[in-house]
Structure prediction request, 242 residues.
Amino acid sequence: MRVIIPPGVYAPQDDTELLLRSLAREDLGPGVRTLDLCTGTGVLAVAAARRGAEATAVDISGVCVATARLNARLHGCRVRAVRGDLAAPVRGERFDVVTVNPPYVPAVSPQVPTRGSRRAWDAGPDGRLLLDRICRAAPSVLVPHGILLLVQSSLSDVAASLSALRSAGLRARVAASTVLPFGPVMTARAAWFEERELVAPGTRTEKLVVIRAVHEPLRLQPTAHLWSRGGGAAHAPGTPPS
Prediction:
């Protein structure tokens, strides 16, 4: 898909492509509401809108929001693009499909950068500054049986994401993956990754995964009313009748 990529906006890469392929397998169309967080160029929101979905895109960067609107216009589709921190701008709304390609690269700084290109990938020493927040908040933006598609690196602890999503009430699994050689950013940090035991010595590849999580609301068990033959309420097992 052809998109406009202004300076400072994260260009679609292998993680975006992996997420796009996963999104293509979902049932989208008129009446389906989608949300793309950390939208960047807006390519995922545009892909959903082109299939007829009611697409919303969110990014904390004003330039990214403007870019998403521009790319939607370029492809002749409608995308509601809004600026804000993760799902804050759409608080109270629920969506059928949510896609997220967040910053997930482990970085020395414990804080997410507030400006510059590193803002698109740096995510604290374990790479989970945004991943943990996304996993906790997922149920609040999904309709019952809604779907979350989240892409991340093996260096940022895939098992932790699966566990957090399951703890939040979602049925989560790895739906797609690919192994890639380190790019320039990862290569520059390879020795630090080794020191922190995020990779084995000499490793210069990472696995990217897409986690697919389905929101399964708590099912209330119906209360059983037990009655004795004589018409009185039955007593609980192990206790004497009154």
